[in-house]
Amino acid sequence: MRVGEDLNQALHGLLGDDPSVYVLGEDLLDPYGGAFKITRGLSTRFPDRVLTTPLSEGAIVGAASGLALAGEKAIVEIMFGDFAALAFDQLVNFASKSVSMYGRRVPMPLIIRCPSGGNRGYGPTHSQNLQKHFIGVPGLSLFEMSPFHDNRAVLDRMLALEEPCLLFEDKVLYTRRMYEVDELFTWELVEDVAVVRFDGDLDYVVIAPGGVAHRAIAAMRTLLLAHDLAGAVLVPSRLYPFDPTALLPLLGQVGLVCVAEDGSAGGTWGSHLAADLHPRLWGSLRRPIRLVSSADSVIPTASHLERAVVLQDSTISRAVLEALDG
Amino acid sequence: MNRLADEDLALLLLIRSFERKLLALFERGELNGTTHTCLGQEYVPVSLRPLLRDGDWMFSNHRGHGHYLARFEDPEGLLAEIMGRKGAVCDGVGGSQHLRRDRYLSTGVQGQSLPVATGVALHLKRHEPGGLACVYIGDGTWGEGAVYEALNMAQLWRLPLLVVVEHNGIAQSTPTELQMAGTIAGRAAAFGIAHTRVSSLDISEIRRQLAPLVETVRGGAPLVVEFATHRLGPHSKGDDTRPPEAVRTDWYASYQAEHPDQSARLEAAAGSRMDEIAEEVAARPPATWTAT
Ligand SMILES: Cc1ncc(C[n+]2csc(CCOP(=O)(O)OP(=O)(O)O)c2C)c(N)n1
Ligand SMILES: [Mg+2]
To answer: What is the ipTM of this complex?
Structure first.
């Protein structure tokens, strides 16, 4: 099963099971079924609750918040995650704050789906990972789609939080298979983190959100075959808030911890995570946590230029080698 | 002006003395932060009061004390909220501009509530037909894009959305002619949304004008009601930039001239009630925030 299909089926299942769930977004109706076809079939089965909207990201998120206030649950598809910027006020100043700013807790079951990321030649305004702009907002959680996390379980978990959640979905993942790993490695879930690893002593660990998982695993393969370095890739489902407690024993054993992410450099999720991990691992770290991301740059359209900016598997393997050598 | 029922006039004067009390408390340094009084605009929510039902949702803005008091007649809870004392409507977290109680909610970001009210109206249309979502906004708020995104959706989906515009001719320090091209009527017309202007200050007349129109909203026709009204006081506190001779029409001045005895009696009652409330609330312990 492809990741996009899994997400589509998860939405079908959720709408079928829970009559209070709405899906709102641009161009969702069949036969089109959304820009990435993730909502395909939904409007035919649930015409009353799958609503195609005007091009009004702010009002879509606002209306979804209104539904949530009135006791429903709402899932918004932002056509390209970049456009979540147009809903920043509704997300940061209304939906998230409403959970606590009225004294008593107000449930706001709300999911904002953000198809994100590059490597597809869509250019500077249709390829970004905007996670870093939403980190640290009280009442707002960040999740990322991954090939190792059942999408239905993730959707259920987000709605059960009764707080607005952003779900970042790397567009490249839609056509990749669920649960598929290189035959050199095994994987298991440790709480909400997928641990993909070489079976044996480890030289390093890479922590990577779902969209980067395949690139990190490809780097892990190169490092093993060409450099005889054994590693693990840790893929959390929830990026923020993130509790690394269950991972500390593993992280404390290895020679290098690296965080790999796809957003542009500077003020990133990885730097937040590293700042959180450094004091916790201070007694056992052998070197500083290494951060890798895309460049501090807009994302060019031409594929050779885009490749030079966006994080690749070679960016990760090079960083691990450099850090272990240094 | 038509004579008002004692109940209506008492509520109007309660709102007025509440706002006057706030300004006095600020002057004495007994209030923290900021506030926006609705002096001169009290009749807007009081006119609408009998036209709205408990099941209707109401979205208010920064200038919302009158909206809240006309709905709940709870000066104690509101003052406690503003003073951060026990019994505050929102435990002192929201303050003057961020109130929530039952189906009433206010926020401090201009224009933000319109899309939210649109979502609520969608729910009402599906599950509680006949209910409506009422949103109060000012003239300045028509500069925000969120207003137009919401109007478009509300009309497209035929939602029971009532937009009440308190057009007081000024936004903070900026007169309408420096911030608005065209008119509110023209903007509503662009969406095919019905618009009505209320220029009367007479509550009975206003209710007669609006009652049938509010019923059409309940049937799923959005409506913009534009009150031509007047802000008597400062935008916030001590920040009235208009020249002293600028016209400030006060509904109460006209009413009082025509109904002096009733006015004197109820004004005195409202004033002493507010004095007592302020004293009682000020003596309460600080609010505690239990939920996070
Ligand atoms: C998005 C946003 N921009 C600016 C402000 C600051 N502000 C608060 S009230 C106000 C003026 C609003 O004018 P209007 O809508 O006419 O309402 P009035 O104050 O006259 O009742 C401004 C600029 C704000 N609260 N929100
Ligand atoms: Mg105004």
So the answer is: 0.92
pLDDT tens digits along B198-245: 999 999 999 999 999 999 999 999 999 999 999 999 999 989 999 988
Instruction: Tell me how long chain A is.
Output: 326
Distance B154 CA to ligand 2 centre (A): 23
Q: In Å, how far from its chain's centre is CA A21?
A: 22
In chain A, what are the domains?
Answer: 3-175 (3.40.50.970), 186-325 (3.40.50.920)
Record the pTM: 0.95
Tell me if A70 and B156 make a contact (CB, 8 A cut-off): no
d(CA B34, ligand 1 centre) in Å: 13
Rounded to whole angstroms, how far apart are CA atoms A171 and B200? 57
| β-bridge pairing A21-25 and A73-77 | parallel
Calculate the CA dihedral of residues A34, A37, A39, A45 and round it to 10 degrees.
Answer: 110
Give me the domains of chain B, ranges plus CATH numbers.
6-239+248-282 (3.40.50.970)
- Residues from chain B that touch A102, judged by Cβ atoms under 8 A, are 90, 93-94, 98-100, 105
